[in-house]
Amino acid sequence: MSLPREDTAVLAARWRDGVLLKRDVFSIVERGRFRIDGDEVDGVLRRLDEVPWWSLGLALHLFSRERRALERARNLDVGPKLLWSGRRALVRGFIDGVALHLAKPRGDLAYFRSAKQALHRLHRAGICHNDLAKEQNWLVGRNGRAYLTDFQLAACFPRRNWLFRVAAYEDLRHMLKHKRSYAPEALTPKERKILARKSLVASVWLKTGKKVYQAITRGLFNFRDREGGGKRLVNDAPVLADLIRRNPAVRDIAIVAFADRRSGVGLYAFVEADQVSLEKELHDQLAAAKGAKPPEHIQVVQALPRDAAGQPRTEILQLVAMNQLDLIEPMMHSDEDRAFLRDILDSRKNLRDRFNFEADLPST
Question: Which among 38, 194, 259, 325 could bridge 359 via Cys, Cβ 3.0 to 4.6 Å?
Fold first, then answer.
């Protein structure tokens, strides 16, 4: 299925392709640049031209909800601005920030204050997001503020009726769950009460509607979403990691997902070892196992970036795999971190889907 002629004409004249961010049965999302008022600005394009026929109806419904919510929230400064919308494509502004599950703002009280303020502005405009349980729908801006993204499930209310109040309450409760994960000591007694009490609608949904939803999305649509990684990250990555660890030359491994133009979701394995030649050997071993499809990319590194607890910093590695290099700099804490990461960046494998987003990292 192709885009309507008028959508194609606008994008051909004003959109410059960039990095693929996500591809599923509901849309393709990519980052690039959009010409508006004579200038080029960073933007994010959602298009429905490669959506299969059996999910098109739902894809159009989600697209319509996002467009309506972005139009109403245009001047709220809580999420991306709607730059342009057509019949089956839209361009929203790019927010200079990193998803919550990548940024991990531990103990950042200012961030969660701004998150509460963002929700207040959104709700005052009669908009409920309805999908804030996902950490990837919360962004940590380069300025430290909280922003929301992915408004496909958002609802716009003409008045503050009981359904609005329920949805707004659930938006707040999901935000507080993230606050509990990253800054539990800052929860107030009132916030703890909200966390402990689901709305009746949410309780019924968890026991009934959510099971039907999961049966449809995971069964009929074969759709998984763990931090945007899909079914392969959930099911295949652990199996592949176990096979790779059996090689005696491997010290450790981290597998992350990235959007791939051909396969939808690709896997990228960062292997801690000394032998660069090990990459081909590992790929051949995984192919010979005739199990899960091998990762699209295997990169041997001298050492994986690690956090204070010694765990691999998969949030950094995922940005490398996605070629979102300009988003890495705010997550670097020292010149040693930057110099260390340069070796990984210089040898990265996913070079098909690139754009000139430059990371401000010093060369070694």
Answer: 325
